[in-house]
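Handout, section B. The chain below has 381 residues.
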Amino acid sequence: MGIYLHRHHANHCLVIGENTSNIGDLFLRRQLISVTRVMFAPNKIFSIEWQDNLATEAVLQSCGASPMSIRAKPFSVLAKAVGASVFIGPGQMIRGNASVFCVLFYLVIALVTRLSRGTVTLHGIGIGRMDKALHIFLWKLIGSLCGAGYFRDEPSLKQAREILGMKQNAFLCADYAFLQTDLSALFCRTVTAPTEPYIVCAPVYCQSEGRLLSSDEVATTVVASAASLKCEKIVFLLHAPGIGAEHAFFSDCEKKVRAISQSALRTRQVETFDLEIVAKLYREAALVISNRLHAVIFGLIAQKPVLVLEDGSQKLAAIARQFCTPVGSIAGSLRPRARTPEYRDALGASQALAFAAFAEGGASGSSKTRWASNALRRYRS
């Protein structure tokens, strides 16, 4: 990928991704924008999503990007795509419940870009359940226009090759949350232990993806974990501020936590797009409990004990397997585990793989290995 990208130095780049309506997608967008600016030094970076999100515009502008909405200004977006370097991702953009109109517009952008001698690359993409022929057909066309596609886990890579037909130009990379940037460093700062230990609980409740945890299960797990760790404070962190269904689910979880613990545990909800506040909550937590991918990854980056709530998601299974993270509800005690050399190696390797997607000659095994090992060496030091 590096060879393909470095041959084309566009004056401007388009970073096209999911709506930044949750913390994970906003974090990933910031990561890709930051690395794009460092690696390619474009005159202008445009952050493209389907519709405007006033709550996150200031965050994107603060890192030097110009937010644009496809829905509000479709022709302006297409004009920006002419001769550009287009980066699609990161995140789970390829899935069966995505808007057909949105995917169709991605295809039009890719066509305009390639016809004007620009470049298109998939970055840090996850692939969800693909059960609709039209979605598969559209993404196959998009894949055929891409110089390379970088997928964040092995199940996604396998689907890219088998379903999307990207046999020769699909590669494995880590989730872009692992990229070593000033933003991800916020989760790694050395902190003094808070005067009162607390647990961060950040479940996801999503009907369209069939991820419907029981509030009873979440509450039981939280109470058992708090008893084991001797915590009296629970922070319910909404990764999708403003989503009504999650608000209702979180409120139900809170009520049941207080009922099961007989009001011995104090709870509060935190709802913010301020990534510094989010990072501080994770790096000072005693434990992270979640079935949300980027809540789990934030806990891993902050080197905190993480308990993954099982909901059948393959992306959670992949990350839990890589880091030997416990999955499921706990019945007994849970103690913070000392991080082993194997864990440290896995974390460093994930950071290295993410960097390799931007390395010179990324499609070359030897060059990719060299960059990965260098990044891993810097992490270990």
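Note. The chain has two domains: 2-184, 188-337. Compare this with the example in section A.
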